[in-house]
Amino acid sequence: MSIVFRNANGWLLDACSLVDKGVQLCNVTSERKAASGKSHFKCCFKHECFQILKSHVSVKSSCTVTTNDSTVSDAALRRSENKTTVDCKPSKKRKRKRNDLNQGEIDSLAFHHKIRSAILEGTKSLVDAGLSCEYLSEVNDAREGPLPSQECNLAALCDMAKELPLVSEHGEDPVQFIESEDGCSTTHLDLFTRITENCMDFAMEVMLMGEKYIIPPRCAFLLSDFARMQPLVGYGRFFDLIVLDPPWENKSVKRSGRYSFLPSSQLKRLPVPLLASTGCVVVTWVTNRPSHLRFVRDELYPHWGVEVLAEWFWVKVTRSGEYVFPLDSPHKKPYEVLVLGRYRGCGHHSHSSLRKTELPMEEQRVIVSVPSALHSHKPSLSGQYSQHVLVPPTAS
């Protein structure tokens, strides 16, 4: 199961198992059926992507920062249960004075100091539970093998959507279904200007742009640029849960050129009010940069009519339960922040006659899991959020 353990602090997740549950039974392409004679096959995610066995060591930083209400020193922050700080020689490329931090670094250290105890306590309780049930193991004989190719040619083609006319301009249906004829799936799909939907109760193997992909059961997607969201708006459905993982601007992305980042102000163009049902839970993944967190809380959510309710933390650990980075690393942290809110707007779809009841949402929770080695691969968290989504009241 995807939830290994839960307590008052949060959840310990088996992210790989959650992916496997959605694609265990998969319908094959016509080519595979002709070769094997079978219409279905069992499918699973590559488990070696979750064989994170060792934590990373970060270079020590020496600094003291004074905030409005406390003094934060790296010597104090480096104290962590069962962890050893490794002192490395400073890089010759960059030398700083002892207290020479910019405002962003000061804010980051202050934010870390504020949430540190909650993350430390919550993670320890969940990791201890994982070790007790042997989902996590302090002694692990597994070896980290080579990772599968991370290339996805479809993502690189999203820019094409900017140049293509929308189907609505030609009066066509904005939705296309992955049809199944005797176990065969279609290969002629318009991925960039129409919603693609698998309405089957099983996953579908399809050929898209010359490559095979697995489409989970009962799901739909739009492969497009964020400025071309009209097909999704025209889909005619409103959602009780919207999760966003924006390509935030950061130094690492600029250096690697791994993907194009999006200026924060452009996120306001996303048509969340046109997609959210009244009371919809909106969740946004945020990097550990205080300016991004402030933007979501103080500008983005108010712009959409979303009330900020909670901050949760995804803590990444190894198979033995250690943080993937030292908790007090001055560079990369072993956690990411999720900002949760609820849509309070009164859009054109608020006429629904179905009365719904909101469940309370905890202000802070910790989600612990072994992360995927694939870059920026987030765990699916819909199961955890489902208890906070609007639900119909019990019939009297």
Automatic annotation (TrEMBL):
Pfam families: MT-A70 (PF05063). GO terms for cellular component: cytosol; nucleus. One of its GO terms (molecular function) is nucleic acid binding. Residues 377-396 are annotated as: Disordered. InterPro entries: DNA_methylase_N6_adenine_CS, MT-A70-like. GO terms for biological process: methylation. Belongs to the MT-A70-like family. This is Methyltransferase 4, N6-adenosine. The gene is METTL4.
